[in-house]
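If your schedule permits, I should be very grateful for your opinion on a structural question. Kindly check, if you would, that the fold set down in the tokens agrees with what the sequence suggests. Thank you for your consideration; the sequence and its tokens are set out here:
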Amino acid sequence: MRWAVVSGDGLPVSGLLTIFRNVVDRARDADLLEFPVTADLGYSWRADKQRFFPRGLPGAEYPSWLQVSDAVPVPVDPARWMEKLDTIRRTVAAAEELDEAEAAGLRREIETYSEHYEKYFYDWFTEHDVDWVVAINLTLSDAVPVTTALHRAAARRWAGDRPGGVLYWDHDLFGSCAIFEDGKRFYPAAPNDFTPVPGTTESDRWAVVSPALLTEARKYPSELEPELLTNVLPLVPGGPLESRHQEFLAERDIEPDRPVVLVPVRVFAVKGVDISVRVFAGVRDECARLGVPDPVLLVFGSLDEEPGYADVVREAVAETDAADAVRFLDGVPISSHRDSAGAWQLDEIDLVRVARASHGAVLFTPSCVDVETVGLGPALAALAGIPCAVTPYDAFADHFGPGFSRVEVDPEDPRPAGHDLACQLSALREGDESLTAAMRANLARVEERFPDGPWTTFLTAMADGTA
């Protein structure tokens, strides 16, 4: 079968695309997928991701199996288009405040731009003879004209008896994604008259990644039954580090004996990177006392994504005197590669291998309890057999449970958790049997709660439906 992917996450280094890569790996292993996968990563409609708007970064690197579009279907000046997108998004989020005339005006704006994207999507699917579109987080209202157009183009493409359709794959929904901007919700709290939801055509499929999202989705105005498909975890090979890992460390002045601590999130306010920096300061304190080599912190995200919050993170780094031990990776790629300067950029799998080999740790410290719908940081730690420190968040219990071994972080006073994490890190380096058993139990729990079986069945059914 042939796939297209349309990502509403707006970043080529998105965690959602990394999870998509994990799904592609399973489909490849089962010989179910034709390559390349054609992709639109949302550059032309995610005006809030200005570094990538509207065509992505010049010279960006993608894996060979992913063919990425740089189309800008709306024929307007990018600055004007960005302003229009932002106005539409804000107005949709506040739809309950509109009078009749304002609502009619919003509909006209949506229709004007939907026409361009409907033609673009339909032509794109036809040109690449697409069987299935995987639409990632397109239910959220980042760009309602685009979502509306996708629904209409899909209805045309898969009219009649044509096999295939659109898989709407939601990792966040309106209620769960309670992000605020200037005191107002970035998205409405629930679907409204302007927000299309999956189920507009018979060919639609709908998958969500958590029990909480399943409960929310079932309340939406759609006759389509959503399905629960938990996230697919990366396949992390065993064995010692390879030359690319060693070169990566050397290029960043990281001695091989230093424990590598991962922060596998973007530099975005709700992800709590400033909290992780303060936890890390505690790790360094205790490592020095215990005689463990000075650790290094690798933050997956880029300081350019959200400049205002980046200042908060920089302040935390300065206050903790951690500048010499923190590396911002500027976005972790979908697949490891050398960049244009010849330096290695490692993907999530390789970074987990580096953390495992160095007896490191993982920090996962969201600052809001009700935004993360899964939160895979603890799962990455389990795959590597290393400890993690975690702030409280609502979805943790659903996916990991109270018996999952971790250091709990008080977001108001993070540093002590770092001391505790360093003690675990040191004990594991010394072969502590009880902690080793706890790490094995974490891995068993993660393998149970994030099984491959449901996705394998789902992928097989998709392929069978297009054979």
User: Anything to note?
Assistant: The two ends are 7 Å apart (CA to CA). The mean pLDDT is 95. The chain is about 40% helix and 10% strand.
